[in-house]
Amino acid sequence: MEQHQPSTMMKQFKRVLSETELNELGKRSGFCQRKREVTPYRLSLGMLDVFANNKVITIADMQRGFNALCKKRVQYKPFHNQLAKPSFPVFMQGLFEHLMGRLTQEVLRFDAGSPFARFQQLWLHDGSSFGLKSSLREVYPGRFTATSPAGVELHVTMGLLDEAIETVVLTADSEAEVHHAPAPASLRGGLLLADRMFFIKAYLAEVEACGGAYIVKAKGTVNPTIRHAYRTDGKELQDWRGLRLKAVKRRIARYGVVDIDVSWPLDDGVLEARLIVSRVPEGKTLRYLVTNLPRDAFTAAAVMEAYRLRWQIELLFKEWKSHANLHAFDTSNPAIAEGLIWMSLCAALLKRYCAHMAQQLLAVPISTRKVAMCLRHVLTDVFWALLHAPRRFASTMRRALEYLAENAQRAHPERDKRKGRLKLGLEHVYLSA
Question: Each residue of 199-238: pLDDT tens digit?
Fold first, then answer.
């Protein structure tokens, strides 16, 4: 380890989870005004330990884990009463935003030769939903009333270069995703990668007007006017000029990939963009990607490869649901249900930060998925040191990071460069430092 980095990063970890800061956060949220056995500080660490390390089914699981870590004898009823407070989800959301804002660091960077190096950030946006106990249908109505009458949707914007969460909005599952797209002004200097739900022509025009770039999947029903169309060898298909896309759809398959300049009319102007149509491998369907990236710097192949990076947010959702207890809890109390969702996200965020810290400090490529699975073997020791033996925190944290470096390395770092997420010139920051 380098001497200055471990000190700085571990001090930040310790400061963010300090008793002073977490108790103050609890007071500001209205969760706790007087000191009790279940203080905001103890509850935060106790719940983080349970959610990050164990399968949590009932509130009793949380209560027992809290008592074990904090060396307390809090009975089920008073513990449940703390979670049932209306301020509990406010505190948990505040804790998530507290961690989200301060436990981030640059993880990946495009090398100078990549055309994508011009972007300050690659933004990935998507939503993830799951069902809740059916008794919560009035508060959180689901989209599928017969099979899942109650459910929530998490609308998430993630930064690829720091692998961190920028925003999370929690709504009922019945609420439309398009209402929670990133604000166009927030995308200035960055590149947005989003699914076809966010192919909204007026929205994309506004993103471009604000200085942002985008690659968005479009539906197969799009029918813009063709201005120019090019094969992969650069030759223009001149007879396509001025036609609508539907008129040439049957001819696209023979070329494999077609790069088309298109336009759509808007209420107050026109959206001009590139439409890259490609045949889905091993299938007969076509995929449509709309982008405003210039052709002279970004080939059709590069645009298609960049869109594949959107899959990183799907992997994030999988981590949340598989290794951070993001699921339907057995409670009919909406405050408890929402609070536990935010706590799940806190645990997941903390795990990712530990992965990034191990990667940066020990200079090895780390798999966030493997960290999500195996951190439980050492994380309780870290929380124990924070609570009961602060002088041992640095050495305990160092042992935990060394464990991750030995047991959670990425399996095929060279393959990542050839055909994985590093293919477009991305590299780990520790290699370029």
Answer: 999 999 999 999 999 999 999 999 999 999 999 999 999 9
Q: Where are the alpha helices (DSSP H) in 71-189?
A: 76-83, 88-102
Cα 184-186-188 angle, rounded to 5 deg: 85
- Reported in sequence order, the residue ranges of 177-256 that DSSP labels E, i.e. its strands, are 191-194, 213-218, 225-230
Please, what is the angle between helix 4-16 and helix 334-362, to 10°? 170
- Residue 269, strand partner residues: 266
Q: What is the pLDDT of residue 281?
A: 74
Closest of 393, 352, 431 to residue 158, by C-alpha:
352
Please report where in the chains the tokens 């649901």 appear, as a residue: 321
Query: Are residues 174 and 152 in contact, defined by beta-carbon separation less than 8 angstroms?
Result: no
* Residues 422 and 416 sit within 8 Å (Cβ to Cβ): yes
Helices of type H across 283-392: 300-308, 311-323, 334-362, 368-374, 376-388
Tell me the C-alpha distance between 227 and 216, whole Å.
20
pLDDT given at position 333: 95
Helix (H) or strand (E) holding 53: helix 40-53
The DSSP 8-state label assigned to residue 366 in this structure reads B
- Average of pLDDT values for 285-312? 96
- DSSP class of residue 65 equals H
- Encoded amino acid at 149, one letter: P
CA–CA distance, 87 with 95 (Å, rounded to integer): 12
C-alpha–C-alpha distance, residues 201 and 264, integer Å: 8
What pLDDT is stored for residue 294 in this prediction? 97
Give the predicted TM-score (pTM) of the model.
0.92
Q: Which residues contact 186 (CB under 8 A, 6 or more apart)?
A: none
- Which residues sit opposite 76 in a β-bridge? none
Report yes or no: 140 and 334 within 8 Å, Cβ to Cβ.
yes
Domain boundaries, the chain: 4-105+329-427, 196-305
Cα 190 vs. chain centroid, distance in angstroms? 16
DSSP conformation letters of 333-363: -HHHHHHHHHHHHHHHHHHHHHHHHHHHHHT
Using pLDDT thresholds of 50, 70 and 90, give the confidence band for residue 90: very high
Report which secondary-structure segment, H or E, holds 14: helix 4-16
Average pLDDT over residues 83-92: 97
